Amino acid sequence: TVGQTITCKAAVAWGAGEPLSVEDIEVLPPRAGEVRIQIHHTGVCHTDAYTLSGKDPEGAFPVVLGHEGAGVVESVGEGVTSVKVGDYVVALYTPECRECKFCKSGKTNLCGKIRATQGKGVMPDGTSRFRARGKDLLHFMGTSTFSQYTVVADISVVAVTPKISTDRSCLLGCGITTGYGAAVVTAKVEEGSNVAVFGAGCVGLSVMQGAVKNKAGMIIAVDVNDGKEAWARKFGATHFVNPTKLSGKTIQEHLIEMTDGGCDYTFDCTGNVGVMRAALEACHKGWGESIVIGVAAAGQEISTRPFQLVTGRVWKGCAFGGIKGRTQLPGLVDDYLNGELKVDEFITHREPLSNINTAFEQMKQGDCVRCVVDM
Ligand code: NAD
Ligand code: AHE
Ligand code: ZN
Hints:
The chain is of the alpha/beta class. It has helices at 46-53, 101-105, 115-120, 166-169, 175-186, 202-213, 228-234, 251-258, 273-281, 307-310, 325-337, 356-363, and strands spanning 6-12, 21-27, 34-43, 69-76, 88-91, 130-132, 135-137, 149-153, 157-159, 195-198, 219-222, 239-241, 265-268, 289-292, 314-317, 347-352, 370-374.
């Protein structure tokens, strides 16, 4: 039987810099290879605010934003076998087709199968499943979780046990997995190694959690907000530095002194290109690696003296922590259920969909780690 169009509430971004508008939209049935999900909960991530601000070169409007969502499969299109109606799922902005050059390389979690259409805000067949006020709305990051129902490609969704509630599993759709994976999968932090984490938000705290898991030595949290010290320590930081309170030396000099020559691993979790430079330069000569996680605005560029790299420091980055969502997310859920991965602790704020603009305002304030939106 052919599915029906569903009318439901969604937060529509009609234009850059405008508040989201919560209104009725139409969500068309899934086509072949697609899955329609009833989203129960979604987190709000800085990347949503980044794209809404108009600073994302790939940003286009009108669009349904949101990429940190979880819910239940409502219907599936022809040929879908990886999930079924009623499955509890997390949406994946980094899909995993298992057949493209990227997926088969064993070297990256990036998947090439639908990246081009995803970046244009349409489904893999080039069309949209969202309509409002007589217009097509664009999709976002292949997920568009700020809608009570969304349609995604079957490679952009993973089923997880319903034992984890959706207000927790949604956070595995971006922030927590990104930071934890950056430490454990991308950097592969070793026992006893010294780590500095720039930015103690959801992503940075998750890096710290991954560093603890891998038995790092010093875990130095660096944040301009002193209020983040207690948070960082709760997630395993052994030291805290506020770079605005150092006199007469740079943060990189300070970290090099603290660690007798530099950090083994550093992570940018701020999106600030000056911080990215400091993070690279705080690495130990000969082997220190700096991982860029933060997303910087259009036009921003990173720089350092090439000598930093000639003398053995390594600059790299990752999306979604380097985690393959369909293969590895269920394992993270198990870790959570076994008490080995903190998730609940990240939730500082909650709002209903009708107040989603409040969630965006909270995110800009220093005391919000994650706001979970109840759809
Ligand atoms: P957040 O705002 O919650 O945390 C950022 C922290 O950085 C804050 O505590 C802030 O006080 C601190 N900070 C700001 N400027 C600083 C500076 N100059 N020095 C030290 N600390 C500073 O954000 P978040 O949700 O944790 O996300 C962090 C970044 O990661 C964002 O840029 C986001 O877009 C990006 N991100 C990337 C990926 C990815 O896959 N690569 C995934 C999720 C988020
Ligand atoms: N569209 C932006 C880049 C945004 C970006 O880097 N997104 C990350 C995820 S951030 C999640 O909060 C990502 O997945 N990047 C890999 C990819 O393929 O997009 C721009 O600057 O153009
Ligand atoms: Zn995100």
